[in-house]
Model the fold of this input.
Amino acid sequence: MKQVQWLLRSGLKCALALALVAPLAGWSAEERERGVGDVVYVPTPQVVVEEMLAMAKTGPKDFIIDLGSGDGRMVITAAKKFGARGFGVDLSDELLAEARANATAAGVADRAEFRKQNLFETDLKQATIISTYLLPEMNEKLRPKILALPPGTRVVAHDYHFGDWPPDEQKTIPVPEKIVGTPGISYTYMWVVPAKVGGRWTSEFKHGAVATTCEFEFTQTYQVISGSAKIGAQTVKLPDSRIKGDQIEFAVLVKAGDAATRHEFHGTIKGDTIDGTVSIGSGSTAKQLPWSAKLVAAAAGAK
Ligand SMILES: C[S@@+](CC[C@H](N)C(=O)[O-])C[C@H]1O[C@@H](n2cnc3c(N)ncnc32)[C@H](O)[C@@H]1O
Done:
């Protein structure tokens, strides 16, 4: 049901997205004509900029790239209020000049740079955070490039989604003065680029002198994983679980006679290895053991 509601709202938002390119009551022709390229210029309200940066947990170690940077507010706020660095790209000379002047006025010109560049051709490798306020089809076109970035890279978007990639977090923010998209409301979304884990993995954990071998078959769709686990002689279905960046966490019940013991796996995915712990049992009697896994065969064509 939730998915249906999300799809309906996405459809509605696609229609509203078209309103971004159509003449808008209350938005002067001069303002609409300031954007250059694939979408007109509409600034993200400042309260929403700050909420997006907070959702991404922006900090001094971050490097943000704003794709279609307008007057520069996203990168400038990230630098001034959150201590980050970064750059914005736009195709409008006028907006780039305004963004640079705004960065100088805010005292962050050394940490907030603005480049004349097509956002589809921008090298994203430096980014720990990507931000967008673009049409849904533009976000979708960018999606493969973003999913290829290191696990843990955050993506924040104003009003529009990235196709069927479900957000890790979303918020609805009342913005009474907003007249574009859904009047009076801004939607903000945050995604974390997931590590690739789809495929077959073998692993082992030792309980005293007893070694238990396991085999996992993970099916991955973006950050959602499912599949099966063979623990000792038993094969169990994995419940749908989520990975966040390079962190994996899932739990299975392993039967022994009439009893079932909870096995809770936590780990960090680093290429073809996972290192972490397995917690066996529950409550104060649970035992935590080191756990590691090795990739045997990666799944082909996983999202
Ligand atoms: C909706 S505005 C968002 C501005 C800013 N990111 C914000 O949230 O306030 C989109 C911006 O993208 C720019 N733009 C459109 N197509 C572009 C492209 N292909 N490459 C770079 N910038 C582009 C426009 O000039 C406009 O400034």
Q: What stands out?
A: The pocket of S-adenosylmethionine is lined by residues 35-39, 41-44, 66, 68-70, 73-74, 89-92, 95, 118-120, 133, 158 (CB under 6 Å). The chain has two domains: 2-192, 199-298. Residues 2-21 form the longest helix (20 residues). DSSP finds six helices and 15 strands in the chain.
